[in-house]
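To close the chapter, one final illustration. This time we ask the reader to focus less on the individual chains and more on the assembly as a whole: which components sit near each other, and how the overall shape emerges from the parts.
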Amino acid sequence: MKGITKSFPGVLATDHVDFDIRSGEIHALLGENGAGKTTLMNILFGLYQAEEGEIYVDGRRVIINSPKDAINLGIGMVHQLFRLIPSLTVAENTVLGLRSSRRPFLDLDVAGKKITELSERYGLKVDPKAKLWQVSVGEQQRVEILKALYRGAKVLIMDEPTSVLTPQEVSELMGIMKKMAADGLAVIPFVTHKLREVMAISDRITVMRRGKVVATMRTQDTNEKDLAMKMVGRMVLFETETVRIPSERVVLQLDKLRAINDKGLPALEDVSLSIGEGEILGIAGVAGNGQTELAEVITGLRRASEGRILINGREITNKSTREIIEAGIGHAPEKRMETGVVPDLSVRENLILTNYNDQSLSSRFLLDRISIDRHVDKLIADFGIMTPGKDSQVRLLSGGNLQRLILAREVTRKNLSVLVTVCPTRGLDVGATEFIRNTLVSLKKKGVAILLISEDLDEILSLSDRVAVIFKGRIIDVVPTNEAKIDEIGLMMAGAVKTAE
Amino acid sequence: MVQDIIVGFLSTSIAVGTSLLLGAIGEIFAERSGVMNLGVEGMMIMGALSGFLTLTLTNDPWIATLVATLVGGVMSLIHAVLSVTLRANQILSGLALTMFGVGVSGTLGRSLLGVSAKGLPVVPIPVLSEIPYIGPILFQHDPITYISYIAVPVAWVVLFKTEFGLTVRAVGEDPGVADSLGINVYRTRYVCIFIGGLLSGLAGAFLSVAYARMWIEGMTAGRGWIVIVITIFSMWNPVRAVVGAFLFGGVTTLSFIFQGLGVGIPAEVLLMMPYLFTIAVLLVVSQEAVRKRISAPTSMYKPYVRGER
Amino acid sequence: MGLVVKFGSIEIEFRKRATRPRYLAYLVPFVAVIVALLVGSVLLLSEGVDPLTAYLALFNTAFGNPYSLSETIVKAIPLMLAALGTAITFLAGFWNIGAEGQLQMGALAATWVTLTFSGLPSFVIIPWTMFVAFAVGGVWGMIPAFFKVKLGMDEILTTLMMNYVAILAVTYFIYGPWRDPAAYGNPRTQLVAESARIPAILGTRIHLTLFVAIGIAVLLYWVLRRTKFGLEIRIIGGNKDAAKYAGINLFKNLLLVTLVGGGIAALAGMGEVSGLYYCLPKSFSPGYGYTAVVVAWLARLNPLAIPVSAFLFGGLLNGGYGIQMVFAVPIALVNAIQALVLFFVLALSIFYEYNIIVRRRR
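The assembled structure is written out below.
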């Protein structure tokens, strides 16, 4: 790829970027969100079209206008959020969009055979007949990879391939990647910050920042610190200082909680936890092991079938969300745009979404416009929310600003005792991430208890006072962070360790 | 004597249900691809009008049926352009289509009121219609009803056993995924909406050319809405739609019978039966859907946009 | 890059906007109406009618002189009320197409009150009629909401079906128990007592319900912007999940909004009975409830814009009736034009989100 330039309304995403990869090579692409690597790969895969620049495959100039073109050229993409359809089978998902050999009828049995062949070649275990919603996350990723291989991919782009895997699954994946490279395939994993993994697996690394290529080098010529500096342009502290506050007073207590998920299966089993004043409790675990349901049960968005939740000694189990909010629980949800805000309403209205009932902002029926405006102006200033104006729609805000808005709203609530925050820095660039983490730390200093649920183990370890590992809805163990060992935690996350009693 | 009544009842139920079945199969395709088309009522009535109009002009019922079908298809394209390409609100676009169809048919149909013509005759199928009981019920109908018989298995096979069907189902569940695999989401939806339009037009033709053999203003009388209910009831499966169409055909026939018999109930209440029955069916289906965790194609109502931040 | 449509060598691109210009809110409805009329002229031509003459006559009958204007306003009153009731439920994300049924039930209720309580003096019976009509329409409107929240039933179909039921119920009463034997060719109920009739502006048929309608429009606007309830409604309509997250009680709010919406629409029916016809005639509503959907949407669900939109459609209806005789064009044409307006409002709405760039390809 040469001189690739692409812009979106108001933003220059990639600026004359050059990138190349050879067959049999694993060439990692590194950069924060907004650095342009996602855009670059999307251009390679035909999802976007560059305004300037050329792409060459095997020395020939090519034009990639759509994923179809990319696939025809042997370029395949494995997405972070799997592009799979739950109600269809593995085989159906694999052949979707391809010409069947028995046109117009489907040829799923033929496909099944080819799938099995490929899976044996590279060690990708799957069952062609299984319906996708019944299958594990790791297997789903294997289906994603198979989809690309089935279509004859010679170049495999992998978007944050390890973000949903346990440490054991990660090494399995690395084995698979090495096998593919040995077979002559080229792999481009691109990531935000899994520096250790990138160092372990790749042959070359390219770092991007603010739409430009900062450096392309052989992995053996660099190290993690060097990479981080290139990514951000300044020395980044890998560990934010954890201020330990001795917390005697228990603020939030969960007692033998049980809950069912949307499929009717148990999501939480016998969960007991407690968080003290000014403490950050991190919940570590691979996505899909009950974290979402845990957050929902505490914030009143899901029923607990058994057990109790107490805040400051008061029971709030299965009470209405309104009561729970008034009892002092704040929630910065995982899906910011889908759950945390009303996209078509204004910034002003979204900043009072959870506390418009507050006496200082409204009376029994009426909203107090003047107080609200004052409050909103202060929040926008204090939290650095970049927006054209109070009245502009929240839909237009970027991810970082959206999260600033949500946190601004939750964190400044008067009676806040507990903050439940899920994946607070997912998809955010380093600047916003630092700001969010600092906000959490200053919140902790004020004595608020924080339940931190995140897929980013580094984040949990650097912020939390204690870490709880969740696996299949059970809390395996809770350890103080300064005594935690990463490999033990990894094993717990993968379910290899029985619940500590 | 009683057997005759039952046979007559079942046979009429099927006849009455034909337009419902055809409409439902068409709507199943549209909704499976993720677009709800509330314009069925409008397309059906325009089908009825254009079919009958063509009949009076050409005296050829087959051409009339063909024209009606095409008119339905063309009308559906309006909805397709609005909701797929222009990303407009599907609910309102469909409603507008119905209002348009009702309005235009009322305007253009004025001159056809009271005219009657020779439409499609009842064609008993040679050997099969002789079978006792089943014969008269199933095999003594007009050609369009027979078409609806064939349409069901054809639709089922297309939806579940062909490449196109897989594409449609994928587009309906997650157009983003389908798009990333090179499927043209817009084209798929256009095709499915068009199929829905054709079948609605055909359903309308049935009413004016085969069934009633005349034109009455507003002759669809809400059948289009019942088609939509049947679509939901069928869980988007053509085979189950047969049950729904037959059921509603039966209820409507019952209300005719009761009216004819002069049972003490006021005519208006009897006329309410199909509509109340609809609400009851919706009730039952919602319960069932919750239990079985079956739901509408996930992407319904949402316009699809690609490549945006 | 967004959607690109190609016509030969010309390329039209839809690019997502960063901000939304204010003038669009006025331009889009205006253009939609004009284009709809243009397309409608095609329909006229097919009926052998010269569109220019027909439209001029329509315009004249609708707005040409004080009498026309007053008649247009008369038609606008029920449209206003039905549209206000519809709009507020739409804002809550509830697709209530039941305004027609609600106004029929309102008319029914009003007839019942005036027939049953005929002895009472004006200042008692008129408010009482309004109250009962509002209550009945409100309950009628709440039923589909109840079904939706408790059973997940799609409200579009339930409200529609209930429309048919309401119309049939009204028909029953007109031909049955409340029939006025004195009316020959024109089936209707018995006349409303003198004291129960809403007075009209002198010299016209504009009944004072107009001021109730305008008052409600202003009130709704204020409620939506200044009250907690209004904010909650807009949150629910904007993002249901966020509403749950914020602790808003969906059930209570939805029931309340459909009660109010149904009640307001019912007042439309009541107005026709007590203020215009002084009885309940057959087919008194040429689909006001359905037109109301277009009225509301054209006004972008803004209560203050609805009276203007209603006035426009009242004129269309009035003019349509007027030219029926002269040009032998049935009133159904008006329905077609209304639908066209909705089509074009929907089609042009894409401009709110996207800018159009036309390019010539090399």
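Chain B is about 70% helix and 0% strand. The first strand of chain B starts at residue 123 and ends at 124. With these observations in hand, you are ready for the problems at the end of the chapter.
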